[in-house]
Write a structure and sequence with these properties.
The chain is mainly beta. It is 14% helix and 47% strand. 6% of the residues are buried.
């Protein structure tokens, strides 16, 4: 009987201790980052839900990117040669008076002779060679009704005191894009390729304004 009473008293004390203990706060939850919506990523190769199981990852929509490999190499030569010559001679006999020429101190004075000679010789030789290699990333700016892609890309490299800029624009056929999402520049229609530099190195290759004048068509000599 005493043991039962002791157990009951101990149980009542434990219940009172649990009732008086402070309640434990619920576990804190970390904020979850917002997932990008499909509308915000529409047009991108890596759009959410845009990975097709039966399509390659070549550029085909506005906003897609592709790599243009520059393989430009041009050579032009021109040569011209011209020779002209012209000779002319005209003689006028003096009149005769009573069957004899008019003379002064035995020298005929009414005779005349005209002559001219012209000659021109010109030679010209011109040659030019250009080569451009590398790669530029481009973005699809527009999809034409026939499916061709209007692309535009630009790369700028800053080196020491100068910078080099390469830009390209043109039209690409999707069939010419290789499986690794690259295309060579000779496959770009209406291509407009620009390569320019700025800085100390580029300025050293520029002719002064006075030298440009004396080597231009405005110089009269």
């Amino acid at each position: 009987m005493k043991i039962r009473l002791a157990l009951i008293a101990a149980a009542s004390l434990m219940l009172q201790a649990c009732a008086s203990a402070p309640a434990m706060p619920p576990p804190a939850s970390l904020p979850m980052p917002a997932l990008p919506s499909a509308a915000a990523s529409e047009g991108s190769i890596y759009a959410v839900g845009g990975m097709a199981l039966f399509e390659d990852q070549k550029a085909r929509r506005v906003g897609d990117t592709l790599t243009i490999v520059l393989v430009e190499s041009t050579t032009a030569q021109k040569k011209a040669s011209t020779n002209t010559a012209k000779d002319s001679k005209t003689s006028i006999d003096g009149p005769k008076l009573f069957g004899r020429p008019v003379t002064v101190n035995g020298v005929p004075v009414l005779e005349a002779e005209l002559g001219s000679s012209k000659a021109f010789k010109g030679n010209g030789d011109s040659s030019q060679s250009n080569q451009l290699q590398g790669s530029v990333g481009a973005i699809v700016m527009q999809v034409l009704p026939n499916g061709n892609l209007v692309v535009s890309g630009r790369k700028q490299v800053q080196i020491n005191q100068g910078s080099e800029t390469v830009s390209i624009e043109g039209i690409v056929r999707p069939i010419d894009i290789r499986p690794d999402n690259t295309i060579t520049s000779d496959r770009v229609a209406n291509a407009a390729i620009s390569y320019s530099g700025q800085g100390a190195v580029a300025d050293s290759n520029v002719m002064g304004w006075a030298s440009r004048f004396f080597n231009s068509g405005w110089f009269p000599f």
